[in-house]
Amino acid sequence: MSNRLSDWVKKELRRHFTIMLIPHSRLKPLRASFTVSFLLFLFVLWTGITVWAGYLSSKHIDYWRVKTEHNLLRFRMSLLSKQLNESRKYLDQVKENDNRLRELLELKTKKAIVAETGAGGPTPEESKNLEKYLSGQLEVTPDFLFEQTQKIKRISRSRLESINEVFENLDYQRALYSATPNMRPVEGRITSGYGFRVHPVYGSYELHSGIDISAARDTPVSATAAGRAIYTGWAEGYGNLVIIEHGFNYRTFYAHLNKILCKNGDDVERGSVVGLVGDSGTSTGYHLHYEVRFNDKSINPARFLDPDNYFARKR
To answer: What is this structure's pTM?
Structure first.
């Protein structure tokens, strides 16, 4: 059975096919005869060439696809690099504004307190990158972008800390201003200043720890800064007395009052009425005895009567 099949296959492969090309002219017809085996060989050869060409074409397409993706990635990285540079420019502007604000507030950093000389400049790596950039050899890589991102993070953190320091200083200055006496507690003529004098009642030569301001009876007496009343009552020599704790080591005393209009623990604002002018205690007439104490030591209240003096004083 197998021999008969083999003979039949060989017979079929030796069979001839004739192809004739008959031109519509005076040329003789062309005739070509091929065996089945030869046609099968041509078919297999054509199929192999087609498969190989398809394989090479797919490789070529993959190459161009990868190259296109690579170029697109490089473009995106280059764009990101430009955006990072723009971010650094904005951070430099923030730094410049921060420095101007510090100059306006006369605020120095802890480092600037120690060294005030200007200094700076690029690192060796930054100088090297600049040389590559000028020569066209600087290539934007993921590592380069990561490094630039880390730098921007460090700069942003530094700028944020600096700005926070400025705002903390602003809060401190506002609180200090609120706690510093800087107005007259009552309108009137100063009848006795701060310093040594002959006591008007006892005749002894001693330090007058405040100033006396003459005013009519029951004239409102105002707190000269924000704070809290820590003493409201009678005190020897002072008569009816209000003591206000302002913070920042400031205290103010309001003595010889006819009436006290606040109580211990009350929070007061600058300008709040705390009492009325009187002549209680050791007094020769209606007036307010006004003291300013700093670190528990009396200082001349005349320095704190004019609000504009606060901004003129050096701290």
So the answer is: 0.58
Sequence-separated (6 or more) residues with CB below 8 Å from residue 209? 194, 291, 298
Model confidence band, residue 110 (pLDDT cutoffs 50, 70, 90): very low
Rounded to the nearest 10 degrees, what angle do helices 142-179 and 36-105 cross at? Answer: 20
pLDDT at 113: 33
Q: How far apart are CA 128 and CA 249, in angstroms?
A: 55
Please name each of the domains of the chain with its CATH number.
2-71 (no CATH), 189-312 (2.70.70.10)
**218: buried, middle or exposed (CB in 10 Å: 19+, 13-18, 0-12)?**
middle
Provide the angle, in degrees to the nearest 10, between the axes of the packed helices 36-105 and 2-13: 80
Contact, 45 vs 22, CB < 8 A? no
| pLDDT for the residue 297 | 95
